[in-house]
Amino acid sequence: MTPRFIAIASMAMLALSASPAQSQIAIMVAGGVNAPVGTLGDLADLGYNIAAGVNVGATLLPIGLRFEGAYNGFQVKNFAGGGDVRVLSGTANAIFNIGRTKDAPYLIAGLGGYNRQLTLPPFGRSSNETVVGINGGGGLRFPLVGLTTFVEARYHVMLGDKSDATDYQFIPITFGIVF
Q1: Domains, the chain, ranges and CATH?
Q2: Cβ neighbours of residue 20 under 8 Å, at least 6 residues apart?
Q3: Cα dihedral sign for 160, 164, 169, 172?
Q4: pLDDT tens digits, one per residue of 88-124
Q5: How far is it, in rounded angstroms, from Cα 163 to Cα 52?
Q6: What is the pTM of this model?
């Protein structure tokens, strides 16, 4: 074996064996404000979101994964009887680490299922639809002792049809904690 091969193999083993401080699997919870865009922006006011998920990978590696479930709530605007829009999502995302340190920024993109429920109470009208969607964005990490916090913004696009109001788009801006 050549010294060059040994050096490359050693570096690869080091990168793949992240220390416990750079945990390989971590739980994440997040929440924040949610900005409706496009068709949803015409219908609803600023909303909120909460999310929980599992991160797989470490900042030492160039790419990680996040499996995430989220609840996004919006109030219907300019409707006398109230009303709301709820979007549940389950996504699988790739996290692209821009640097190899704990405080490095990252890009995130993924694909998932989005379930939209539109409720207009005075008429007892409610509709429920599920479609595939995509998302992409970025975030900044802020490591603390024993955990990491982050701020993230992503653009979610539901790939549904405008005729059944499943073409919604929204941008959650979240603060989260990774344990």
Answers
A1: 25-178 (2.40.160.20)
A2: none
A3: negative
A4: 999 999 999 999 888 999 999 999 999 999 988 876 6
A5: 31
A6: 0.84
